[in-house]
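Onboarding guide, step 5: your first structure request.
Type a short instruction followed by the sequence, for example:

Predict the 3D structure of this protein.
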Amino acid sequence: MTVSFTRCWASPLRRLLAVLLLCALGFARAGSIEPVGASLLPTDDGYALSAEFSIDLGARVEEAVTHGIALYFNLEFELTRSRWYWSNEHVAGRTLNYRLSYNPLTRQYRLGTGSLYRSFETLAEAVRAMGRVGALPVADKSQLKAGEIYHAAVRLSLDRNQLPKPFQLDALANKDWQIAARTLTWQPQIGEAK
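The system replies with structure tokens like these:
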């Protein structure tokens, strides 16, 4: 009787451990967008932003894109000047919107900005391209003066308000949909524009 009693408990215990292991593996990780670096470069017309981000969408968000849900991201740049007598003065700003989607017919991922689109074979390539910003015009020559102290901030984040309504509710309640986006701040050295 004891032998069958032990076998009886051993089997459900193994099943329980197997279920717990599968549940632990099944939980999706939350994503993150970390800025790697950014700089403000002089150009012929003014100043341009160059930035790089490390993007991890997380398993749940990657699955949503692969199943045809379009995701929208916002790149936000702000340049302010310190004032001792009042709050910081807004000098320049720029917002760039991205649309990341998957087309099952062509089996390609599309990354769009405005009316311009690029296609990629894999999601990793599309995400990598979105994480690199090069020579984005942000300010005219007349807006910045050499010798002034400016504060720049750049951030790339998922726009959850652009998700379809059922996913918006899920994004509020479910941590798997929350992509932590950090803001990078720095003091650019402003020289003469080219």
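Each response can be followed by summary notes, for example: Strands lie at 30-42, 46-58, 71-81, 89-103, 108-113, 116-120, 132-140, 150-158, 180-181, 184-186.
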